[in-house]
Amino acid sequence: MPDLIMNLNITENSAEQKNNDSLSGVFREYSEGIKKALIEQSYTKPTPIQEQCMHPIAEGKDVIGIAQTGTGKTAAFSLPLLERMISNDKQFKTRNPKVLILAPTRELASQIGESIEKYGKNLPFRHTVIFGGVGQKPQVNALRRGVNILIATPGRLIDLMDQGYIHLEDLACFILDEVDRMLDMGFIHAIRRILKVVPKDRQTLFFSATMPPSMEKLALSMVRKDPVRVAIAPKEPTVDRINQSLFHVTKNSKINLLLKLLENSALEKVVVFTQMKHMANRVAKKLQASGFPCAAIHGNKSQSARTKALHDFKSGSSRALIATDVAARGLDINKVTHVINFDLPMEAETYVHRIGRTARAGADGEAISFCGKEENELLKSIEKLLKKPIPVQDTPDLPKVENNIRQNDVSNKNRPPQRRFSRKQNSSNSTFFKSRPKNRSRNRN
User: Fold this and answer.
1) Is 5 contained in some domain?
2) CB burial class (10 A; 0-12, 13-18, 19+) of residue 141?
3) Could you say which DSSP state residue 392 is in?
4) Range of weakest confidence among 4-13, 61-70, 106-115, 359-368
5) At a CB cut-off of 8 Å and minimum separation 6, what does 28 contact?
6) Left (φ > 0), alpha (ψ -120 to 50) or beta: where does 169 sit?
7) Burial (CB count within 10 angstroms: exposed 0-12, middle 13-18, buried 19+), residue 228
């Protein structure tokens, strides 16, 4: 029996040593459960934001973290948070949420939930994700069973708070992801309402890709004194690793240009951005009719449709994802080869976030933009932000576009022809038409 115990100890020690040997930096300092999860996810070396955030977050300090897209900010706050929870097991094991993570979109909330699931799979903590667009019953049932970590969008969170299903009085940690987007999207009033409920003596973490001075001032008003500020200046900005190009093209020729570009098999995994939801639908229908597997994602789509569109794109079932700016921020989709701006964004900063869907995690990428005459002012704003012009490409020969592009819509192909009769009545025959009896028979033999 003693020999068996000794052998088990040797096996455990050798497994622990193997974990330590395969990990580097602060990853070596995490508990065994987290280390195992990191190795399973092939995470061996922390990024700079992950390296610098580990100790202050694990120690319970407030942190404002700023790093460009694709640098692993979700892991930067979730890993040390889980480590802190392990160290304070009794404090965090309660029925009411002890950790609240707010995200601006349903997709980002789901993505954070998936990350927590992966990193905490060997830990005894419960988490759940709540957002609108789906029935609340499963979410309420999860809350009733008890939740340690709650990931939410602001609207559904407040709705369930008002119904008495969520109580935040015991919260120990409050996290805002994509802070500037949260505040830009008009969530400031919701955030302030939530902050009135949570304890003042809490840990607060703010993370974002960009943090303008006005936003940072607002963020500082929500944290405790002397927060730790971690700002990672990239050696090479993501935008500089992206090969950018521009086509000047008429509005009605954009769809034909897109189809022409997609003939190139190098455009393997493409995100296409439009301004309007109806245009995303129209582009998706055109591509599908031309044999290019794709799906549209925007705010008017049901949550099940949005989830399926993302799943198909991530798995490779769809070659293109046609999206409005709901997908421009926060979503982590691997190996996107190209981003195409079918419409230029209204705000120059959004351009940077859009093209940041490619060239993630150190990879290269390509961004192609279409610009009509009516978008020239938007282009000037973008190039002013980039501090350089976007290289212009010669537009290839394209098929002629019919005057009314709607006539080519797939949705209209099966529509039966409609007859239109126009009879100009005059004084000589108006009486005749009025007095003529109507023939209501369907069979006019």
Assistant:
1) no
2) exposed
3) B
4) 4-13
5) 20, 35
6) alpha
7) middle
User: What's the CATH code of the domain at 131?
Assistant: 3.40.50.300
Q: Is residue 113 a part of any domain in this protein?
A: yes
Phi, psi of 129 (to 5 degrees): -120, 130
pLDDT number for residue 213: 78
- Distances in whole angstroms, Cα of residue 154 to Cα of each of 111, 235, 258, 361: 16, 35, 36, 29
The alpha carbons of the chain give a radius of gyration, in whole angstroms, of 28
Residues 6+ apart with CB under 8 A from 84: 57, 58, 59, 60, 173
Summary mean pLDDT of the chain: 83
DSSP bridge pairs for 369: 246, 341
Please give the pLDDT value at position 314: 87
Q: What is the domain extent for residue 84?
A: 44-231
**The pLDDT of residue 327:** 61
Give the Cα-Cα-Cα angle 326, 332, 334 (nearest 5 degrees): 125
Question: Of 172, 203, 231, which closes a domain?
Answer: 231
Q: Which two tokens stand for residue 408?
A: 């080519």
